[in-house]
Amino acid sequence: MNNATPEFDGSAWVHRHIMSHFIAAPNSKPPYYLGKVTEAIPPSEDGQPWTFRVAYEDGPDASLNRNDLEADLLPVRPDNTHAIEETRDWIFLKKTKDSIHQHLLTGPLDHRSEPCMRSIFGFQAGTPITQKNVKQRLHKRSKRLHPDKTTQRPARVKHLAKKIYYALNYLHDSMIQDSWAANDRTVDDPPTIDEYPAYHTEAFAKAASTATERVTLEDLTPGDADEDPQHGSHDDDSQDAYDDNLNDQHGPTAGNPSALRPDGTIDNTLQGIDALPLEDFLFSNLQHVVWVPRNCLRLWGEVFSDITGELVDAIKSSGPTRQQRIGTAARWYLGLPQIFLRDPGRGCIRNAETIHLRLVNFLEGNYATLLNEWSAAKAKARKKAKPPKPDTKARRTDRCIKLFHQGFLSRGLRMITGNGRADADNPKIIQQMQGKHPVEYWPHASWPIGEEPDLTSNIAAVVMNTKPPS
């Protein structure tokens, strides 16, 4: 019988999430940060430890050994759930609530206190605590904590989110109104220690209980020993990422408000496109020309080459700005048809002139003009879009009669005997379609970042297979 310990395989930890804390200011409670393991590097020699690359959502990449990483590993949780308490953010939010509680034990929350602001908002040491940065961080947290996001969650979840959201807003508003006249200030109800008991206590359970849902101490999973790792401390410091929805393959997916000007328009930089969410570029609600006008072919080639080249360079790059570069380049690449080739609807000659001007604007660096015109056209198309008419039995009957008069008897009968169209947003329909069309993952070769594959070995076979028959 073989009782040997199985050999450790660090690659199993790739894509796992961790939560670490960094020293932000002397004598302060360190803020916590979520990260994701992006690479596992095996030891080069016997006896050497595994090394792991980690991408932090609120800081630069870091290299950790096995012991440091294992201390910070979070339990595996689903990524496709809208329930806060089932995601990795839940542990992070409880740590934020704990930071608020600890600061209230020593006195009121004060936006002038650097340790208080860094700990509760999660700013690292190199990040200046400005009104802009505080507003940006509040906006990020609102995506999870706003009351509209927690209406269907358990009472304990709603109460925790509500208290954190209030404390963040209080500090933000206090900072904004600090220079106002005393009579103009509206912030006059600071959080108190009685309103913010520790999470794993009877006091919190009582405060979270409602008329329809009673919260008990058992509901609060005392200690969370099964899910709360013993976190290590790391001194790396930077403020680079802006998106809570970090995706290693596509870069940040949500929009970056800091890329907007004070008047709400897009900034005149290549990175100004980051102001819009990646989803806006995946689907187009605009009409596009089928062919690039002849007089625009050379300019189109230059623009296409610049954008695709930047995307390839971003993918090959390394360092803390890699994901952000990928997100910027991916937006330009996915938006090529919408931004440059949307149909102006003015006839062939004027269409060609308009497309020519768009291409020139990009090559001359007039990104704000190009993107603001596209954004306005997209918003106008959304406003003009008509909602689909309800698929009722009366409407299908009317449609059946019209088809009969047109001579389409079979189609008419199908209209009246069928059950209509299913609601594509119905969770049961979505589950049924996913069951019929499961996602398939095809095996493919992969290369380390920065290395290029050797395609010369099978190029002849590729050309032979794609050559049309004579």
Radius of gyration: 28 Å
Residue runs with pLDDT of under 50 for 5 or more positions: 24-28, 222-249
How many separate domains? 3
Which class of secondary structure composition applies to the elements? Answer: alpha+beta
Binned strand content? 5-15%
Shape: globular
Strand order of the largest sheet: 4-3-2-1-5
Explain what the structure shows.
Mean pLDDT is about 80; it is low at about 25-30 and about 220-250. Helix 13 packs antiparallel against helix 14 (about 410-415). Strand 3 (about 50-55) and strand 4 (about 60-65) form a beta hairpin. With about 475 residues, this protein is α+β, with helices and mostly antiparallel strands. It has a five-stranded mixed beta sheet, with helices on both faces. About 25% of the residues are buried. It folds into three domains: about 15-235, no CATH class; about 265-385, no CATH class; about 395-435, no CATH class. The chain has helices at about 65-70, 90-105, 115-120, 130-145, 155-175, 200-210, 280, 295-315, 320-335, 335-340, 350-365, 365-385, 395-405, 410-415, 425-435, 460-465, and strands at about 15-20, 30-40, 50-55, 60-65, 235.
Layout of secondary structure:
Blueprint (H helix, E strand, L loop, with lengths): L16 E6 L9 E10 L9 E6 L4 E5 H7 L16 H18 L7 H8 L9 H15 L9 H22 L25 H7 L24 E2 L44 H4 L14 H20 L5 H13 L1 H6 L6 H16 L3 H18 L8 H13 L3 H9 L9 H10 L22 H8 L4
Parallel strand pairs: 1-5
Antiparallel strand pairs: 1-2, 2-3, 3-4
